[in-house]
Amino acid sequence: MLIKPLGEDLKFEIYGLAVITLAILALASLISPLTGTLGQALKQGLVLIAGKGGYFVPVLIFLLGLKIMREKSQACLNSRFFGFSLLFLTILIFLHLPYPSDKAFLFGQEGKGGGLLGAAGFYVLQKGFGLAGSRIILGALGFISLLLIAGMPTGQLGQDILNRLVSIWHRGGHFLSNFLFEEVVGEETKEKGSENKNSPLTALGARSVFSKNAPAGDREPKSASREKQYLPPNLSQNPGAKGVKTACALANGQPYRLPAPEILASIVQPKSNAALDKEISEKTRVLEDTLNNFGITIKVNRVNVGPTITRYEFQPPPGVKVSRIVGLADDITLAMAASRVRIEAPIPGKAAVGIEIPNREISSVYLRELIETKEFASSSSRLTVVLGRDIAGTPIITDLSKMPHLLIAGATGAGKSVCINTLISSILFKATPDEVKFLLIDPKMVELTIYSDIPHLISPVVTNVKKTAGALHWAVKEMEHRYELFAACGAKDITRYNEIMCKLPPENQCLPFIVVIIDELADLMMIAPNEVEDAICRLAQMARAAGIHLVLATQRPSVDVITGLIKANIPSRISFAVTSQMDSRTILDMGGAEKLVGKGDMLFLPIGASKPVRLQGAFLTDKDITTLTNFIKEQMSPVFNEEVTLVQPELKNNNEKQDDELFPQAVNVLLENGNASVSLLQRRLRIGYSRAARLIDLMEDKGIVSTYEGNKPRTILVNKEQFNQKYH
User: Fold this and answer.
1) Sign of the C-alpha dihedral computed for residues 356, 358, 363 and 368 taken in this order
2) Which residues are CB-neighbours of 284 under 8 A, at least 6 positions away?
3) Would you call 436 helix, strand, or coil by DSSP?
4) Which of 101, 198, 325, 691 could bond to 126 as cystine, CB 3.0-4.6 Å?
5) What are 497-535's pLDDT values in tens digits?
6) Is beta strand 513-518 parallel, antiparallel or unpaired with respect to 436-441?
7) Contact (Cβ atoms closer than 8 angstroms) between residue 61 and residue 17
8) Rounded to a whole number, what is the distance in angstroms from the first to the last CA of the chain?
């Protein structure tokens, strides 16, 4: 009988458990004499090797076992483990300093000092540099080991320690003030809360942000993990202005802290795979032979291995048309045994043709590794957006304010929703609630509701399709209001306005950026196409200078959803995998998206670019999003503006004036048949689905039929006599 081999992960868990068991036994042998003959022999060995530092050996062994269990086949000895080992050796040598160098090994054999290891290191240093030099070198080695363990440069480590000491100092002072003056603080807070509750809505301009005139330390973090201190605005100022109430009440009086990358799950870096090199060599040979069979002699001169695909670059021989190579796409796909092959001919900025072939295994690109990069940390924009990595593995980090609006489209499961989550999360890592506000519209009610109650929201996540027109109408009104503020102070855009306002008292007159995100545009275009299209086009044309930016997403990239007006006013676009070349042309005005492999594989067409860039989108788990939002919610609570989702009065009047001429006839059809359904109106009146659905919605608004309740049929609420009396 054949025994089924153990899985790779199970093997490494067993190895790790064995190493941890050895560490526990070693520690027990040092503490207790009840470990038997082998235990006592192990103790003697540890004391002989490490002396008084023998207790550190089980700790190192335990950390090694834990690393094997967690990372399994990906486990490798990183710089942090070498840092612990170097610190251990430094301590052993330091323990031997009190003993004379000529008797170092004698004391080491007796288990004194740092054992034989400490004696050997001490002997070398003592003979070479003397006692003073040995102490200097040991101090340097200890400092280097701390840098390896921390995994950050000297300046960043010192700043991080300083920030933590300052934070502990502030928390201690705040605790003492609460303990000594608890009742007084409670009364003041209560009075301020009641004043804010009774005060009218203050302006969107009544808030505090970091201006460009602020010190560099406040404006630009030195590292991705540095936390910026943010003080709350004075909510009582400027009570008569219009707009959104200044945002957030600080919990426990603490300053707002930007989340650090460490709150996200740790990343397991894949090990280099020797089999991948062999695969690339084989595919290079097959590609050259395939084109040679068709009379095109080429030599692959560059290979770029990306997370999703590998691009093979070569220069066509003289006299060979590029279109001839493009026409061989299907033959190359067959020869490579690939699912899809994309040919970029020519590569922008290069005199070369690129053949993009999917990898057998797709490597994930995590958001944490990108926000820890120097590019993200050095960006001073509060609308810095992480997209992913390109074919060469270069991080692609852009600025939403320069796009200035973004259209995202792709088939179901291609990575569209993950891209939106990455966009929102990367801004949350950069901006405080008073610097950036979100207006989230999610008709599907499942994608963006995870961000409910974060203080960056202007209003609760809009999930009712009928309220979206009012929300977009509010955004247009807010844009017009901002332009009135700009004109009053002679500013041409939000950046210049904030610079002027931060110099004048009161200091909380600065405006935040507003990012409007619509997760499924198709649902809105079905219900209220005219109102939605008009509002989107108005915002796309004028809202950039006002600091309002649009992000539109849809999984149905057809011309009736992404109309010509919408596409003309949104220059930056992202396309994930789509089903046809027609859908790709609708999004990008060119083919190519139909050849993407999915799972975050995207084409990014920034404003002003002639050709899109192929990327592997950053990945963020639901658990990471929950951790991030909980970190933010624990600090601050939002204050919503209820006017955002209210349909404006003029919009209601317009809807009432736009009654369909078939309305009376449609009501009679429902009264005669005794049930209310869209399909019935389609058959009896010979009209399309959209018009029939609008007629049913109009009847619901007028109280003729009941509201939609899932799978239950609508109920007719009036009879024929009541309808004739009320509407005739």
Assistant:
1) positive
2) 300, 303, 312
3) strand
4) 101
5) 888 888 876 655 788 999 999 988 888 888 778 888 888
6) parallel
7) no
8) 87
CA dist 366 and 265 (Å) reads 9
**Residue appearing with tokens 């809105």:** 524
Give the torsion sign (CA, 434, 500, 485, 472).
negative
Instruction: Measure the CA–CA gap between 84 and 81, rounded to whole angstroms.
Output: 5
Of the candidates 357, 353, 344, 360, the residue with the CA atom closest to the CA atom of residue 284? 357
CB 261 within 8 A of CB 372: yes
Residue in this structure with the two tokens 């070498």, named with its chain if needed: 82
For the chain, give the number of residues.
728
Q: Domains of the chain, with CATH numbers?
A: 8-155 (no CATH), 274-358 (3.30.980.40), 659-727 (1.10.10.10)
pLDDT at 251: 44
Instruction: Look at residue 314 in the predicted model and tell me its pLDDT.
Output: 92
Single-letter amino acid, residue 450? I
**Sign of the dihedral through C-alpha 513, 519, 522, 524:** negative
In angstroms, rounded to a whole number, what is the distance separating the alpha carbons of residues 226 and 163?
8
- Give pLDDT tens digits for 304-321: 888 888 999 999 988 889
Instruction: Give the per-residue pLDDT at 616.
Output: 92
CB-CB contact of 621 with 631 (8 Å): no
pTM reported for the whole predicted model = 0.57
160-194 core/surface letters (b: 16 or more CB in 10 A; e: else): beebeeeeeeeeeeeeeeeeeeeeeeeeeeeeeee
3-state secondary structure string, 415-426? CHHHHHHHHHHH
Query: Which residues lie below 8 Å from residue 340, measured CB to CB, with a gap of 6+?
Result: 333, 358, 595, 596, 597
